[in-house]
Amino acid sequence: MNKSIFFAALARYVKPNWQGIKHWLQQWSFYRPFHLAYTHWRASHGGLPDWVFLLKHNRSQWQRIQDKQRTSPERVLVATGTAGHLPSITLESLLGVALSVRGAAVDFLLCDGALPACMMCEINWYSDIATFGAKGPSDRCKSCYRPAVDMLEDSAISHLGLGTQISESERKQARFIAMTILRDQIPNYVIDNVPIGEHAMAGTLRFFARGDLEAEPKAEVVLRRYLEAALLTYYACHRLLVGGRYKVVLLNHGIYVPQGIIAETARKLGVRVVTWHPAYRRGCFIFNHGETYHNGLMNEPVSSWEGMIWDKRCKQQIERYLKSRWVGRNDWVKFHQEPEFDIEAVKKETCIDFTLPTVGLLTNVVWDAQLHYKANAFPNMLDWLIKTISYFEKRTDLQLLIRVHPAELTGTLPSRQPAVAEIHRAFPRLPKNVFIIPPESRISTYVAMSQCNTVLIYGTKTGVELTSSGIPVIVAGEAWIRGKGVTLDAESELDYLRLLDALPLPARLDELTRNRALKYAYHFFFRRMIPLDSVQERKGWPPFEVFINGMHDLEPGKSLGLDVICDGILSGAPFIYPAEDKLHATTVEDFQE
């Protein structure tokens, strides 16, 4: 049994006044070393950063910094929301301390059990949906909230509970709306131009790990819970942010409940928003101003990278890194431990004949694509997938090779709406010229797609890599490579079909276009993905931990990546790491991937 769950359950029945005992013990000098040892043990076993231990040599300096915070005009709200999401509280506590060192006044916003549903709720945790519908996540709230609060309080880091910002009348109002509104009206429910219902639906889809709710008979009770939670989050954040108390809100992802509502409310009230997410490269993170990084990378102007330094050394660096992605050697995540690169094995498994013109197709995880990307040429990824197969059913002169995303099985939240099942439901007899590589296959996506004339994508980032290798790509959805001048972008379903009519294409991308694709790939992987040397990878969960020798490691000038991030949060500077400058500052002997 998980230790935090055990102790949370124990705390329900054994309720001494621990805070009073702790306060009494703190008056005695002998308490400090025992408390230091205890908090270090608790943090190391619970996966939380141990800031008492990390700052043990800087206690007086930390106290002076906190004293100055009371008059600081630079107020930052770190809206972690769900403290049980350990990657978030780990990185955000690091940034909170680093921002404090730079003179900012930092408050953390945590859900204190006030929400009837949140992004910590997943169907895999609940064998009976009816029980969740009746009681919500109350069984997880203590093990989520209390350990994080203890961590912050032990380090005297300021925090607010979401529930403290909600009045009793607002609780009743949220409950009434959630229980009485017609189900069909929920996804479009809006307050003051804040899309409450959209985020409630997003949270529900994530809960069920599906792209739609048609096959979930008990979905309505969960959807209503997420609507109530979204409303409560809006009421709390509106009260907290409306007075202009905070200059900027920092939070992970920027979608789902509560984070999506927090971000939407802040934008509505004119408060700057910064979102972040772990990047693909190991030790790196993506930050974005104003919106979730998914939209930010798509909307980023080409002027942010077209004028960057670009020469042979940059090109060699990105080509070396892109090759390493075939095995994930330099990345946080790899989908297969031993991918299959033998093209003969690919032919044998799929029965495809690569001597005939072949078009590749890469899917997204069904529920993930539904949430992350606003559809462009099609309503959603599944609609695009089925209509594409229907098109190729009539194009017997071409073969279609579909690679289903491996993360359907290996992701942190495996999909309960497999693409293969959806394909077979629409096509009980698959067209003879359509071939499928299922998610469990060890076949390398890169090797399979290298045999294709053109590759069709909806929202996958693999388009960045394919164009960099000269493979033509048609974009049907909101992929990050769209609009960069290296892909064929469909603006409508009719436009997409016209692009398919032109297949097969006569040649690979020309050298000028491929060079532009490589340049964007460099910007994407090395400039937008910011390295932090104050975190290191670890086994287990969370996948990384704080790694510093003391507060001096967080001071300005000690870490270029940390400076870029903190400057972006405090001043609105671009979240672009000058990788090319650092590369050219090294000697030839130092230049290696």
Report on this structure:
Mean pLDDT is 90; it is low at 1-5, 7-32, 38-45 and 587-593. The strands form 3 sheets. The protein has a 7-stranded mixed sheet with strand order 3-2-1-4-5-6-13, sandwiched between helices. A 6-stranded parallel sheet has the order 9-8-7-10-11-12. Strands 14-15 form a two-stranded antiparallel sheet. The longest helix has 23 residues, at 219-241. Helix 1 (3-13) packs across helix 8 (138-154). It has 26 helices and 15 strands. 46% of the residues lie in helices and 11% in strands. The chain has 593 residues and is of the alpha/beta class.
Task: Throw out a few tags for this protein.
6-stranded parallel beta sheet; globular; 7-stranded mixed beta sheet; 46% helix; 26 helices; alpha/beta; 593 residues; disordered N terminus
Brief overview, please?
This protein is an alpha/beta fold and 593 residues long. The longest helix has 23 residues, at 219-241.
Topology:
Blueprint: H1 3-13, H2 18-25, H3 31-46, H4 51-54, H5 59-69, E1 75-81, H6 86-101, E2 105-110, H7 129-135, H8 138-154, E3 159-161, H9 168-180, H10 196-208, H11 219-241, E4 248-252, H12 259-268, E5 272-278, E6 284-289, H13 293-299, H14 303-306, H15 312-324, H16 343-350, E7 358-362, H17 366-372, H18 381-394, E8 399-403, H19 407-410, H20 419-426, E9 434-437, H21 445-450, E10 454-457, H22 462-468, E11 473-475, E12 488-489, H23 493-501, H24 511-527, E13 529-531, E14 535-537, E15 544-546, H25 560-571, H26 579-585
Parallel strand pairs: 1-2, 1-4, 2-3, 4-5, 7-8, 7-10, 8-9, 10-11, 11-12
Antiparallel strand pairs: 5-6, 6-13, 14-15
